[in-house]
Amino acid sequence: MLKKGTFTISIDTELAWGKRSIGGLPIVLKNADKIPGLVRDMLTIFDRYGLHATWAVVGHLMLENAAAKSKYPAGTFKCAGSVECDDPAQQRFWYGHGLLKDILACPTSQEVGCHSFYHTNAGSAGLTTGQYADELKLCQEVALREFGIHLDSFVFPRNRVAHLDALQEAGFRYYRSHHDRSWYSGLPQSIKGYGRNMDALLALPPSVWPPVESNGLISSSGSMFLAINPRFGYSHRLRAKKILRGLDRAARTGKDFHLWFHEFDPLIDREGYLAVLEEVGAHYQDLKRRNLLESRCMRDTSCL
Fold this sequence. Notes:
38% of the residues lie in helices and 15% in strands. By secondary structure, the protein is α/β, with parallel strands linked by helices.
């Protein structure tokens, strides 16, 4: 008998941390006050349909404010004295203690995972495994002190998978891998964008994969990034259609469909994004009632 398929959701939760160096910071800064309500709206939908998700949080967000750092030894935080840490007028961009409280309070259990402490790219030149392990251990320390939790799952910033030994050293067991296995991945770079847009317009079924265990870690490969941008043909209706096809494929094959996005992505089209999540939730419930699909957090990944 074919085993039940699974549906994994992971959300890169970072406020302004991930946008500092890639030009997307203004939209986050301009709309930062809207993000807590947006997260609560997503949690309401997840609870309505029994959807579990892993919220991979930049560790610095677990702190309530700059004053909270006084509980830790001097020199613990490398950003001391910077705008991100100490400017009272900007702390809502760099601290997210309230977001985590909302996530942990959701009646349908959600997982708090890790996205490094400062949104550090593991593939950065000169970064050693020991340095990365120290940063990830700081995430565990702050999670335990602020919320009494252990972090099991990790999502690499920029999807740059590296220093896997650091994950194990810091007590992580699960991570999201990233493989471009789309049909257009082999196209020349000059036309790959056309292939990506065609894939979106046709709403072709995304890939589904079984989890993989190696050297004590279990990886779950991302199947689809939920981007909505009507300007490039990524309308919410087409994205919903593509996701539903991914759920059907997972149910049919007994594999995992792993959907991922950022907590601020719905700012581009809030109503459209939430409508997609509603449609996805309703379709998931139908498949679950038929005993074909199960929602899970990353920490619930099994290779059995």
